[in-house]
């Protein structure tokens, strides 16, 4: 699926408190032989997560540190869009779990009960909790 369609569907799932504050971006560098690129998420115009295309030899290191590449992000988004909120939260893929934290289908009571050790999920969980409970 094209990025524009994915982005539109992702934006429609973002909670009301994060609308226009969380933005999904993507770019590809077409001049390279393997069309590398990156995707990233911003919150209030500050990058909070970068999904840069990386060397596949470093995959073991990246899984442990929370670094993922652009293609892993795209695959996760496509899968996430077909899942219920319960399935997304229970996913083994940390990108899908992170996207589910931003989902408007996730209520406040359930939000505060979530515990996750993955860096991406924790970043987005903290942002969502702060926004939900500090805004009037």
3D structure, described in words:
47% of the residues lie in helices and 15% in strands. With 136 residues, it is of the alpha+beta class. The chain has one domain (3-134). The protein has a three-stranded antiparallel sheet. β2 and β3 form a beta hairpin. The chain starts with a helix and ends with a helix. The mean pLDDT is 86.
Topology (elements, then pairings):
Elements: H1 3-13, E1 22-28, E2 37-43, E3 46-52, H2 59-65, H3 70-80, H4 85-89, H5 94-101, H6 108-113, H7 119-134
Antiparallel strand pairs: 1-2, 2-3
Helix pairs in contact: 3-5, 5-7
The total number of structural domains is 1
What is the gyration radius calculated from CA atoms? 15 Å
How large a portion of the residues is in β-strands, by DSSP E? 15-25%
> What is the helix content?
40-55%
Sheet/helix structural class: alpha+beta
Order of helices and strands, N to C? HEEEHHHHHH
